[in-house]
Predict the structure.
Amino acid sequence: MSEIPKAYDPTQHEDSVYARWEESGMFIPENLPDFQNREPYTIIVPPPNATATLHIGHSVMLAIEDALIRYKRMNGKRALWIPGTDHAAIATTNVVEKMILKEEGKTRHDLGRAELVRRIEDFVESKRDRIKLQFRKMGASLDWSREAFTLDAPRSLAVRVMFKKMFDDRVIYRGDRVINWCPRCASTLSDDELETKARVAKLYYFKYSHDFPITIATTQPETKFGDTAVAVHPSDERYAALVGKTFQVSFGGEGGVVLNIRVIADHTVEKDFGTGALGVTPAHSMIDYMMALQNNVPLVQVIGEDTHMLAAAGTAYVGLSYLKAREKVVAWLRAEGLIEKEEDTEQNAPVCSRCGTEIIPLPKLQWFVDVNKKFSFKHSPRRPVVGIAAGSAVSLKEVMRYVVETEQIKMIPERFEKTYMHWVDNLLDWCISRHIWYGHRIPVWYCVDKKMTECAAPICSVDDVEFCPHCSGAVEQDPDVLDTWFSSGTWTFSTLGWPYTRVIFVRHGEASSNVTGMMETKNIDAKNSLTDVGKIQAEKCASLLAAEDAAIIIASPVERAKETAEILAKKLGIDVRFDDRIREVGAGTLEGKSITKFIAARGDLSNWFNTTTDGIEPYMSIKERSNEFMADILKEYQGRTVIVVTHGGVMGIAHKYGTDQPDGEDDYPGNCGTMVREFDASGSQSGDLNVYHPMDVLETGYDILPNWVSRMILLTTYTLGEIPFKTVYLHGLVRDEQGRKMSKSLGNGIDPLDVIPKYGTDAVRLALLLGQAPGNDLKMSEEKIGGFRNFTNKLWNISRFILSQEDAGTESKYVAHESIDEQPLTVLDKWILSRFATIAEEFSTALEAFEFSRAGELLRDFTWNDLADWYLECAKVEGGKHVVLNYLLQNLLKLWHPYMPFVTETIWQSAYAKDTTDFLMIAPWPEYGTMARYPEAEMHIARMQRVVTAIRALRADFKIEPKEIVAVTIVSKFVEVLAIEQPIIEKLARCTILFANSAPDGQLATVIEEGTITIPKPEARADSMDDRGKLEGEREQIGIYIEALRAKLSNEEFLGRAPAAVVEKEQDKLREAEEKLTAIELRLK
RNA sequence: GGACGCUUAGCUCAGUUGGUUAGAGCACCUCGUUUACACCGAGGGGGUCGUGGGUUCGAAUCCCCCAGCGUCUACCA
């Protein structure tokens, strides 16, 4: 096909191919052919910051995940890959605040909370689409219809519902914690917002007072007003006798304070530093704080947010800046003669990364997830965690450990399980509040006036709270927002429709009409109130529902339902309201007549569906009003539990909302019976969570294993009672040629957006997938990408050659699997088909095992060596191979598709697509299991290859002109096999062959496994040509080899202990080597 | 300081449960316009598998020591 260009130009095809895929809808699993019968396979993208630009780290993640998803999709899976972005609260806030400061010179305090949040949201909105476009550039086959954002409405609801659940379970608590405080920014800083500055500080050695037995050392004497303990190492004999004692000491002179100092033993204290004793200031030091927690020592704050001393520091010091206070304390210590020594010491002081101000550790009220608190484990109704009984008391830490220990979650590579366990074992309570404005605001309110004692408790609520439920006074929402990981930790289930809304349908209790069997559908008829039995039924029902944390009761206004609902409401202590849309079925003129008569008049569905006799309400009318009702309450009470009290007939229709169950009145329970149904955010009862959770693979970089992966395991097992995913695959980080991290400041980064237009997305993907072991870092260079661009082009040209083969009378180039069997196959054909079947299997197996690099190398070697270098060249000799060639190509394209989707789809479209809906993307995977294998043909062709290579080497060694056809003599015991391939050997090695019983003297020889091959010496240079040197060298080498083999085979212990198969193999090797040696010696005689 | 890794050809890396004369790509050298491809083809050179010890009939592979490098995590009162 001369119209196909010689070189593949990716820019010509990639965007349009992606657009066609997306238009086809096949990224959405429900559009795949026969999707109901496909087994689900789910991956979710680790959400990049919404304001990010595509970088090489995203590329490697997308390349791996897309390869998996495409492979599984072609293998008949219901492949779902969900995209999304992260609001990255702190990082985004920093970017925008910096921008505003630079452009307008304003701080966040100048703007105020509402304005700053609005500005950040605008900024995020303006950047959010960019990363998505760039994901498309990578060829990622993502289901864009399910796109999510960690701060959008569904995720906000999920976060609030989850927070409330944890709050109610007391897994979340509020407590003091020492945080990094920047006095200039008036803000807390997370650990990654800190930088360290080296400085020299004065280290003072002193005692608190003359009657205190231990000397301590510090660089910050002013904090000592907050000391509540002195810590020493447990094995330190100097202080052993004092451990456990408490001393009262007055400190700071007149206007100072009295300290209560307990001596505690802690392993973190170093015996050899300073005096080996450490004054513990829990309020103003992180490690002191940890020590205080473990030793149960109180915390006293002495420095305020404004860097001035607080009242707890004593009347003489309060109000002084901490530096002034330091001077004053030191002066007092000196005057008292308490100082033993002063020396200079080097320190790394933490400073604010934004303004360089030294941070002050301060205690602040924060929200925590208690990882050790036992809670009652809830089971998933779907695929619960195995081995933890529902209702058993467990802690988050225990569950996190358990699911990985029991391999319910597997990590690849396995060694990261160790990292994970180590992390879990050292896990402290997770501080989830952040003192910034952008993010999920903590769903907790506080009563402002606190008029009643109950008002003191924080109010946690899914819905916004407007006034105090106790005193009806004003409330204020907690000012802080949640840690980003708290929302991204819900990623696997909040993106699949969680929280589910639970609707409990309750049929009214027994009424007098139930006893008489009369139709009573209107309402308020005192004659038709609940019977005594009905009232007892309602009471019983209420106690059954007590465990359900229902938000509201909604009831039909018809008397018997109304009455039932009111009994429930009273007992459960929740509100009730009435909705006419779930009233009883209209009886028309049969009102007050018997039910039997009513049913007879109504008839079956065909009669009742749209129009009816006697004014009876048609089925569709009931369905319409109940559907409308369901849609409304599901929206209003999303994620909550709602009790709906109505009538049997309405219940029978309404409970089918959100399913595809056929129309018709279903059975409904007896009086006060219940039906429980769960609905996802879209109002479906068969939603995504049922189908796609747990996810199959969580693929991400190993650097966020603790931050994110662990948090997802924590939150998912707690919230759902399910694991979030079955396998965690961790890839390495991409580095530059010198192994450095890629960064903007170093300018050493490879920007995918630069190299994609240059080399094509397929080449970039190959460069990221090959040469990378799981969990190992990957060194990347533009040369490497260039190399894979060459391979892309090679595949293009292989296709070009195959598609140019004359196709005698066949209309389509497509070759069905079966039609290969009808082909007359030569040994050569059998060889390549057999090789292909083997490679297809090995490639698939390697992919299943996440061995992306090995898989790719296998396939590349097959494509380049076996197919291009050998089979194509041989096919030119044998001719007439268009069927086998096209068969190979179309299957090869399938194998390559997960790695290089664009070039393979482009070729498929131009050669094999049957119509415009035929995409390689959804083509079935090659059926390697049913492909014939020909081991004998593989052996024969291997012999042929060795002979060709030997002749070529002989020519090259003795500088035979490339154009010259040489007369080759072959002495071999495999003549029969080689003779079949004679034309191929002659063409490929540019020679004529004579098979003989002995090699002619005076010729140049080479000896291989297949025998002795000779060529005549070129006449002009006959004298200078000598093969003796080469042959002697080989004789020596093989001699050594034979020696080693003989030694091994005469070793009794080897013979005795090695498996028979190994011994046999060694014997074969020896025999072969000896034969070769004999042949060489024959030539050297 | 703690945890986890890595060290195989000039460079980047494979080497599955110990049984090859240790492989690939790139780079290098020689040759080459043969019905796809110079983003190519043919041939070739190059490694005592970081050091030392041990287990074993047999170690790049398992164990220990040491050295160098890397990542994460604590950090010094």
Notes: Residues 452 and 901 of chain A are 67 Å apart (CA to CA). The two ends of chain A are 56 Å apart (CA to CA).
